[in-house]
Amino acid sequence: MYFSTPSIAATLAALSATVNGALVRVNDFGSNPTNLQMNIWVPSKLAENPAIILVLHPCGGSAESYAQMTKYNSLADQKGFINIFASTKKDNNCWDVASAKALKHDGGGDNQGLVNMIKYTIDKYKADPKKVFATGSSSGCMMTNVLLATYPDIFAAGSRYSGVAAGCLAGSPGASPQTADPTCANGKVNKTPEQWVVQVKAMYPEWTGTYPRMATWHGEADNFVNYPNLAEQLKEWSGLLGVTFSKNVTNTPQSGYTQIVYGDGTKLVGYSAKGVGHTVPAHEADDLKWFGL
Asked: What is its EC number (predicted)?
């Protein structure tokens, strides 16, 4: 529908950002250097000082389609937290996790626009800045890694599915299957934990605090974003979090899945899914447990 009167369109846009119990577009959330789209789900019964989960779609996806594919909104209605479903329309709807600006704190990339969505939501809904989380699948997993690497001061924890380590695609001409250097997705970028730490800390050299807790999931039969990328993510975050491998727990959280525990299991865990390809289905209830919700 086309509105010829600017005041009417502006009024409807303002109303859309305040509707509860529906996925609605927010058009003005602050600086948006890469022209992302913000959609928000605010439950009818909002908790006091609610938590926020940023949910990121895979390549070729959208906020609307990923909201329908997952259960985060129904869980938000039960628990009273807020979901942000963002969309990118560039590079085959894949998040930019390859350019220099995207791999930097306040560098003008997709990551900066996403963080501004969170800051807007904290201000508008009096959300708890200590309870901000991110999750995503495939390209959304890759961006979750980048966000928590470049904005460790914003996020408390992340859970991601079938992606690659932050910085794995650095210097690639793009981040989609059609534009990316395939070396990373093929599992051929191998580094030590120490090398990954150096790369991540260069993304935000001023940061001297701790890094967010991380859970990462990957299918052993993934031949699209190959399985060795799970090990690289675990190496990266074990180095950043200062934890080492402690044990494997089989058939957790379900048959055929192996939980890979680092330290006491409160900072870093991985999940290896036997026979699962690209991508591991979202385990929303497990994500909420990991986030403490």
From this structure: 3.1.1.-
